[in-house]
## 1
Amino acid sequence: MKALKQRFGGLVRSRPSKVGPILRIALAVAIWPHGAQKLLGWFGGPGFEGAMAQLTGFFGLPELIAFLVIAIEFFGPIALALGFLSRVAAAGVAAVMVGAVATTHWTNGFFMNWTGGQAGEGFEYHVLAVAIALAVMVMGSGVLSVDRRLASASEAS
């Protein structure tokens, strides 16, 4: 048990901050609908098969990476909302956002396409998502989280 605490304790250890839940829930709310579009076809999305076809065909991602993008965008925000392995979930979200900028949004510039005058969306949204994800990775889940309860339980034993 002591070896497990030493190895994985840092993943769930969390500062008793009230900012942690605000950041992780905001990130979850911003990302989860995109995952629901890709996995379930909600909010006008293509659903799993359509998203896989788009990510592997149009964007040229390997199937495993496309699957991980969908899984991270759907399940990562759920983990963030619960405060369960938030550092891992935030790292996944950050990786997806960096990948989206690198494969799609960089060529469209910084700004979102508010006026419809650009070829596509810029990457300002992604900068904010990565910044929030980095903050969660540094500070942990904060109060009101599964991680905090797990850390408390492991310290007590």
## 2
Amino acid sequence: MAIFHLRRALTAALFGLGLVGGFSLPSTAQAEQPTNPAPRAGKVQVVVHVIHATEEGNKVDPKLQSLVRYLKPLRYTNYDLLSTHELPLGAKAPANFSIAGDRKVLVDLLERDDKRVRLRVQVVGAKGQKLLDTTLSVPRNGTFIVAGPKYGKGVLVLPLTAKY
């Protein structure tokens, strides 16, 4: 009876986290054998560019050439690189840095496997208010664009590239 209640509790917890799909719990005889090993540990180098994007002008900072394909879908025509931050992230080792507009960015590595990383990204305003708090998935050696908040006559664009 205890195994049944344990299975029900685990299923409810996994379902609440959005992890239940084709997942099945091991039978009683296999309960000691994990079916899904923990994600591989290790550091991930996350590079965050801070870009000021506007509709004034029509130029892309030459230092952003490797990111042009990610910027094209955005509605802006002018991209100026303000700063670049290289973050060696590991488990339980979040990083933070300041950006334009008296804001702070916090990046935390949640999970890493052979194909992708999951990151929690927060942007905090000058008065401590959360402007953004999201979890995102970045493909291995890929880039994910976070656009906003407003800055000057445009917005700040934060491409995050996960290298490992």
## 3
Amino acid sequence: MISLTKLSKLKKGVYHSAVWCSKNGLYEKVSKGVIRIVKYGNINGVEVKGNKNTNENVIIPNFVYFNKKTGNTLVQLAKTNNPKLKVKTTYKLDGVEITKEQYELANSPRKNYDSPIFRVKLENLLEIN
């Protein structure tokens, strides 16, 4: 897990190499790619979809949030549009690599809102340089 101190020292808006994951029981999805630490207001053409989450408190302005309802600290990131720097993802079941199709049989894909911005739980941000 990355510390809030390290995150606060990283330059915002520049590209960083990162590794993050999501877990669901025995299933794990590990992604590695180039991202930026961003706030919505700095990306042209991005519209926030849905209602503002009133359960959230900003910890570090505009990119680290704490959700009181879930107890999760979230980091806001953005993917690059460069196809050479595409995010690479591996899927695992109990530590053994499986195919994306096998993973999706047990874990329905998330809705895609065509936004380059996403949030990762702080505990699931494994590495950032």
